[in-house]
């Protein structure tokens, strides 16, 4: 049997290192709340109204799909937050049925959670399963500012 060449070993190690770094980056980014980039899509407010986001209410909008396993985890997190934080509204949107809205709001994967403030502006967003603590920290000041 022939011994592996040093070039082959180096290429294998480089591929493994790159894969490890990519996995680390993805896990670090997954579910993290971030401020949305300025949208070039026409009328995100109209898209939000089209899926039933009520005016004057802080709302969590979850975009999900029937075959999405992380969507079930996200649903449990959001449902628990809704019961813990009075005045919070929750809407789940099936991306297969509302693909036009998903495109207008720049949703590219499921689950995606949008935190919509009382003025109807998307204040935060997360692609992946967000942590309950991060959502609570983002929602508390928005709920305090919301009209009652």
From TrEMBL:
Q: Cite the Pfam families for this sequence.
A: Thioredoxin (PF00085)
> Which ranges carry the Thioredoxin domain?
37-144
Mark the transmembrane ranges.
6-26
Entry-linked InterPro entries: Thioredoxin-like_sf, Thioredoxin_domain
Give any GO molecular function from the UniProt entry. isomerase activity
Q: Which UniProt keywords apply?
A: Isomerase, Membrane, Transmembrane, Transmembrane helix
Query: What is this protein called in UniProt?
Result: Thiol-disulfide isomerase or thioredoxin
Protein source organism: Micromonospora auratinigra
């Amino acid at each position: 049997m022939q011994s592996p060449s040093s070039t082959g070993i180096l290429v294998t190690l480089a591929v493994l290192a790159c894969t490890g770094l990519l996995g680390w980056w993805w896990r670090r980014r997954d579910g993290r709340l971030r401020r949305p980039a300025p949208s070039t899509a026409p009328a995100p407010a109209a898209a939000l109204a089209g899926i039933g986001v009520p005016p004057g209410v802080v709302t969590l909008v979850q975009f999900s799909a029937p075959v999405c396993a992380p969507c079930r985890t996200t649903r449990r997190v959001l449902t628990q937050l809704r019961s813990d934080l009075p005045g919070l509204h929750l809407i789940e949107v099936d991306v297969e049925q509302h693909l036009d809205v998903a495109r207008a709001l720049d949703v590219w994967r499921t689950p995606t959670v949008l935190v919509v403030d009382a003025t109807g502006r998307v204040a935060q967003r997360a692609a992946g399963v967000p942590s309950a603590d991060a959502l609570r920290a983002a929602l508390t000041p928005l709920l305090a500012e919301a009209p009652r």
